[in-house]
């Protein structure tokens, strides 16, 4: 028998998640059934979307997880196979290789680690994982960029935004990124962004007009809020907007959200196309994105930066750090 540890959310989040909202529980895993595998976790993901889901009922903290099979009753998953799942914050878990989870926060099938071609396994919860797919399909299929167009990305120094900006450069676009510190601004410009702006210190409207005097054609929105309203009012006719997140409001009281400038006039008079994208929309196409992103990383066209925290006991701190914007690139936890 294996004794496993897992994080359980025991309180509904009110504002910032608090340490007392989580408990680390120990439990004994049962013997394997046919089709099941016992997996030892190696890399765990922390992501802003974890804050969106909150419930008065206890639940295991979900999230992407890279692990190695240490015991198996599934012929296609021998011992030593590395797998990716959405099982979450646990050090050991049993996975049913035939199961597709139906709940919104568990959608997806277990899959074998992509062929990483010498890249770190940790990228399978980042650039070669859910965030990479979000950047790839969300940007290319919703913004439909054309060479020479101007692209704006918010949350630009995060796991998704930093990839979007680099993909936009590959496609021949001018790229402007908004981030929350001078350190992030400097890093974004070092990886090819034409301009990066610290939204916490700049006059964002004036700074964007100076950086994009001909207007904005595509906007990849990770944050929502007043900053997004400002950007929409500087978009060109028939501009394209994809909304992927709203991190500016994740820690706010959902019954009394902060106010932002009305968007309808900008959408109407500029004939904007605004669409929402959730990565599950592309659940059957993950390998397509993985293959191309791996090629871009190998060729040096994409830098896949990681913000690594070590230790199972530090997962809570890593999550709060992401929500506060402490990370540059993808936040991962090594256990």
From TrEMBL:
Its main location: cytoplasm. Keywords: Acetylation, Cytoplasm, Fatty acid metabolism, Hydroxylation, Lipid metabolism, NADP, Oxidoreductase, Phosphoprotein, Prostaglandin metabolism. Residues 18-333 form the Enoyl reductase (ER) domain. Its EC number is 1.3.1.48, 1.3.1.74. It comes from the Eukaryota. It catalyses: (5S,12S)-dihydroxy-(6E,10E,12E,14Z)-eicosatetraenoate + NADP(+) = 12-oxo-(5S)-hydroxy-(6E,8E,10E,14Z)-eicosatetraenoate + NADPH + H(+); leukotriene B4 + NADP(+) = 12-oxo-leukotriene B4 + NADPH + H(+); 13,14-dihydro-15-oxo-PGF2alpha + NADP(+) = 15-oxoprostaglandin F2alpha + NADPH + H(+); 20-hydroxy-leukotriene B4 + NADP(+) = 12-oxo-20-hydroxy-leukotriene B4 + NADPH + H(+). It is found in: Cytoplasm. Coiled coil: none annotated. Pfam families: ADH_N_2 (PF16884), ADH_zinc_N (PF00107). InterPro entries: ADH-like_C (IPR013149), ADH_N_2 (IPR041694), ER (IPR020843), GroES-like_sf (IPR011032), MDR_fam (IPR045010), NAD(P)-bd_dom_sf (IPR036291), PTGR1 (IPR014190). GO terms for biological process: prostaglandin metabolic process. GO terms for cellular component: cytoplasm. GO terms for molecular function: 15-oxoprostaglandin 13-reductase [NAD(P)+] activity; 2-alkenal reductase [NAD(P)H] activity. SUPFAM superfamilies: GroES-like, NAD(P)-binding Rossmann-fold domains. Belongs to the NADP-dependent oxidoreductase L4BD family. Monomer or homodimer. PANTHER family: PROSTAGLANDIN REDUCTASE, PROSTAGLANDIN REDUCTASE 1. This is Prostaglandin reductase 1. It comes from Spodoptera frugiperda (Fall armyworm). The gene is LOC118264717.
């Amino acid at each position: 028998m294996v004794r496993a540890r897992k994080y359980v959310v025991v309180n509904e989040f009110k504002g910032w998640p608090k340490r007392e909202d989580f408990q680390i529980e120990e439990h004994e895993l049962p013997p394997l059934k046919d089709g099941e595998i016992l997996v030892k976790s190696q890399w765990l993901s922390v992501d802003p979307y974890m804050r969106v889901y909150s419930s008065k009922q206890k639940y295991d903290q979900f999230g992407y997880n890279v692990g190695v099979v240490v015991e198996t009753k599934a012929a296609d998953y021998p011992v030593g196979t590395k797998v990716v799942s959405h099982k979450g914050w646990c050090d050991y878990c049993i996975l049913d290789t035939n199961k597709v989870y139906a709940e919104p926060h568990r959608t997806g099938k277990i899959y074998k680690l992509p062929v990483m071609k010498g890249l770190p396994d940790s990228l399978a919860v980042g650039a070669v994982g859910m965030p990479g797919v979000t950047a790839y399909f969300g940007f290319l299929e919703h913004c439909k960029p054309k060479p020479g167009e101007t692209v704006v990305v918010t949350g630009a120094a995060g796991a998704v935004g930093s990839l979007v900006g680099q993909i936009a450069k590959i496609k021949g676009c001018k790229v402007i990124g908004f981030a929350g510190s001078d350190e992030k601004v400097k890093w974004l410009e070092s990886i090819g962004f034409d301009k990066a702006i610290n939204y916490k210190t700049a006059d964002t409207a004036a700074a964007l007009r100076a950086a994009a005097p001909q207007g904005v054609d595509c906007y990849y929105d990770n944050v929502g809020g007043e900053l997004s309203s400002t950007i929409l009012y500087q978009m060109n006719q028939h501009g394209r907007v994809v909304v992927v997140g709203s991190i500016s409001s994740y820690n706010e009281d959902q019954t009394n959200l902060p106010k932002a400038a009305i968007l309808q006039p900008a959408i109407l008079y500029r004939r904007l196309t605004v669409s929402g994208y959730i990565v599950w929309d592309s659940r059957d196409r993950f390998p397509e994105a993985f293959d191309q992103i791996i090629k871009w990383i190998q060729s040096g066209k994409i830098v896949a930066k990681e913000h690594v925290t070590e230790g199972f006991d530090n997962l809570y701190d890593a999550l709060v750090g992401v929500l506060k914007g402490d990370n540059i690139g993808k936040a991962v936890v090594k256990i």
